[in-house]
Amino acid sequence: MEKEIVVQKFGGSSVANIDRIKNVAQRVVAYKNKHTDLAVVVSALGDTTDELEALALQLSKTPPEREMDMLLSTGEQISCALLAIAIKELGYDSISFTGSQVGIKTDKSHTKARIITIDGKRIKKAFKDDKIVIVAGYQGVTRNDEITTLGRGGSDLTAVALAQALKARVCEIYTDVDGIYTTDPRIVKEARKIKSITFEEMLEMASLGAQVMQARSIEVAKRFNIPLHVRSSFSKEEGTMIVKENEKMEEVAVRGITCNKNEAKITICSVPDKPGIAAKIFEEISKQDINVDTIVQNVPHDKLSDISFTVLKGDLHKAIKAASVIGSKIGAGEILEDKNIARVSLVGSGMRSHSGIAARMFSTLADNQINIGMISTSEISVSCIISQDVADKAVKALHKAFKLEQP
Ligand code: ASP
Ligand code: MG
Asked: 52 in a domain, yes or no?
């Protein structure tokens, strides 16, 4: 009988200290049997990556990226070795490898490298000897033997890419929450764990603010159709499956609600209403490498209109500067900023076949005296920008209106 392969990934909080590493070791060996080979990917212990980064920043404001990769990749090298030791102690054979040892080849972009190929030979060989393989997440190596890292949260990507290379049946992502919820349970106590969600919905929710998995890793899982199982490392319960869309899943119009308080709004007032002006503004902004989200242009009065757009709070300063530069070039008026905004979004691939979702969202907000500042939509989502002070209230009301507490 051909053995099946399963990839498991344990995040930083799951291996934060010795007791938790022992817990992971126990879970891993409980899963292992004659018919299953396990490749286990680990993140660095707890906040190790942040701590290592902070050390470097004490020495330089702009540490060389190559050296940052040398430094940050050590976090995962520690956790994979410790886990292998813990597993051996339980009487199972295990071996740990760095990314470079298992042939995770990447491009040369230090601190945000992309995986090009994975040579699974060394892992397969260890499987033949019935070893549990532990792989350091978040890292790879270039063709010239330079160590690289895959961007923050990159152990997810290591796990998904390994699952693809090894043709694993499933890729299990163990974390400190027990799955994907209809919305943040800290905001809505009736929030419900979702049984299964599509790759697309998960990607949309991640880009709209849900922070469960690294977005790039979900893209890769979608491209290669690798089922993901997001679950807790502290309980035996099933979590949430992230899978390819099937007909049954379309019956639900709204799968979840996200709330992102990480954006700010910029308004350029009294912009001359002429062709080419919007292009000029957003060319200048994008030159600064700033991602602009929702854009709204008001109906012009006296050949002048206001243009508002949102950016990540971290980019606000840069964006205001760029807006001022272009504003004075084109003879616009004041530049206003508003940090007190939130983006509340409904997500669901069933929106393609259900109508009236946006209308119901707007009337629910209206019934709750919540003013909508901006609106944007995609094929499978509707977002409203509202005041941050009423964001939680909005999420609660929408969760109820769309009956998300009911399975
Ligand atoms: N340790 C890295 C980070 O904290 C990678 C990961 O956890 O996935 O970003
Ligand atoms: Mg981490």
From this structure: yes
* pLDDT value at 324 more than 90: yes
The protein residue with its alpha carbon nearest to ligand 1, atom 6, reads 153
Instruction: State if residue 99 touches ligand 1 by the CB under 6 angstroms criterion.
Output: no
* Centroid of ligand 2 to alpha carbon of 47 (angstroms): 6
What single letter denotes the amino acid at residue 183? T
In the chain, the amino acid numbered 331 is G
For residue 10, the ligand closest to its alpha carbon is 1
- Residue 74 sits in a domain of what CATH number? 3.40.1160.10
Cα(158) to ligand 2 centroid in Å equals 13
Q: Please count the structural domains in the chain.
A: 1
Ligand 1 atom nearest residue 12's Cα: 7
How many angstroms separate the alpha carbon of residue 125 from the centre of ligand 1? Answer: 27
Lowest mean pLDDT among 80-94, 102-116, 241-255: 241-255
Q: How far is the CA of 233 from the centre of ligand 2 (A)?
A: 15
Read off the tokens for 368.
Answer: 């709750």
| 8 touches 31 (CB < 8 A) | yes
Q: Say which residue the tokens 């008001």 belong to.
A: 298
Q: Give residue for tokens 């290591």.
A: 158
- Largest separation between any pair of C-alpha atoms in the chain: 80
Residue type, 127: F
In the structure encoding, which two tokens stand for residue 394, read together?
């909005």
Which range marks the domain in which residue 106 is found? 4-176
Closest alpha carbon to 242 in 261, 220, 258: 220
Considering the domain boundaries, does residue 135 fall inside one?
yes
Could you tell me which residues are beta bridge partners of residue 229? 172, 241
Mean pLDDT taken over the chain: 95
